[in-house]
Write a structure and sequence with these properties.
Length: 179
């Protein structure tokens, strides 16, 4: 589907439930990656949701969630998404989360580049956005490496487990994108 030499993105299947459960079942990571409260779920609920998507696939109009794995042997790396798609204004947001052991090896950069390609080329978007906690150096650096510009800081916007932390917003216009 969407791939570099090392990383492939594809829709998750019910068999991916244990990996998805591990990725999204960490309450501390949830504080970093999600603005909604963490709700504990068991692996069976994750599988049930993925099974439902087999017969009732999401229409993908406003969001697309993909799984990232290695091309070499299909090792699960994490997930990436295009969400908040606004076709009228032609923009969307990007989201990404990798397992701890997959981080710091360039995979995040490749996943963001693949999501940009999907957003700009296949969804004909004009602008992509990324938001993260100001303290998330890894995400900020990855966004910058992928060509995103720091466009602003929202003060005390998100609860991070200790208090309300600043959020930074990054944007990339299609005309500034290097495929
Ligand atoms: C953020 C994340 C996706 C980055 O992916 P990654 O594979 O670890 O990043 P890469 O290896 O591609 O590195 C990209 C850049 O970030 C830098 N970087 C990576 N981890 C870093 C860290 N912990 N501290 C500082 N810089 C870091 C790299 O040096 C590289 O910089 P360069 O392009 O100048 O060489 C990944 O760390 C992750 O999933 N973190 C947890 C979830 C998360 O925070 N998601 C974002 C929520 S908005």
């Amino acid at each position: 589907m969407f791939a570099t030499d090392r990383v492939r993105l594809r829709p998750p299947t019910p068999d991916d439930a244990p990996n998805m459960f591990r990725l999204y079942g960490d309450p501390e990571l949830h504080l970093v990656t999600d603005g909604e409260p963490f709700l504990p779920r068991h692996v069976g609920q994750v599988r049930a949701r993925l099974e439902k998507q087999v017969t009732e696939p999401p229409d993908g109009q406003t969001a697309v969630s993909l799984l990232a794995e290695t091309v070499a042997d299909g090792t699960f790396l994490g997930g990436g998404s295009l969400w908040g798609v606004n076709p009228f204004n032609q923009y969307a947001h990007l989201g990404i989360s990798l397992l701890p052991e997959a981080r710091g090896q360039g995979y995040g950069t490749e996943v963001i580049q693949l999501l940009c390609r999907y957003g700009f080329r296949n969804r004909n978007l004009r602008r992509l956005e990324l938001e993260t906690l100001a303290s998330n150096t890894a995400m900020r650096r990855t966004a910058e490496t992928c060509g995103f510009t720091h466009e602003g800081t929202q003060r005390e916007r998100e609860y991070d487990g200790d208090g309300f932390a600043d959020m930074v917003i990054y944007g990339l216009l299609r005309r500034d994108w290097t495929p």
